[in-house]
Hints:
Layout: H1 2-11, E1 19-23, E2 30-37, E3 40-46, E4 49-56, E5 59-68, E6 72-73, H2 77-86, E7 94-105, E8 108-117, E9 120-133, E10 136-146, E11 156-157, E12 160-161, E13 165-173
Antiparallel strand pairs: 1-4, 2-3, 2-13, 3-6, 4-5, 5-7, 7-8, 8-9, 9-10, 10-13, 11-12
Amino acid sequence: MKRLLTLILILTVNNLAGQEIKKINSERSTIGYTGNHYLHKWSADNTNISGLIQLDEKSILNIGIVAKVTDFKSGNSSLDSNSFRALEALKFPNIVFKSTEIKEINGKININGLIEFHGIEEIIKLEADLIQIDGFTNLTGEFSLSLTDFLIDLPSLLLRKIDDEISIKFDIFY
């Protein structure tokens, strides 16, 4: 609940006349990542996302999302435990995204924002598709992050570190 109230404050900085704030549908939304090591790939998904989307006549004005690091599950408890340790999930429990600019160009949604991960805030730019599914609006896309940009020590397996870049895929419903 505290995360949700923080997002409300973030999104209400602008004048709200004629605007609407929608809560992200946590039951349908997912954020997942895929990583790579020369021996294998792995992935994990988070289906417990909190967030708000500020709209003006159906255009997206602002997005705020919070995901707990420990809610990313791979289906392998040992892998999850090692990931939580590498990401220092007890010290840095949340990943927070706040949009700074959103534009629709040629049917795509271009989103600039700040992501706070592992105690570091970085500017990111991503592109998303916006579609209607079963009465919901779905914002979907993919982008990559460098783990070392967030000062994460890359874990090793058989004396070889994992790849620095991870791929993030999101399906946000509201």
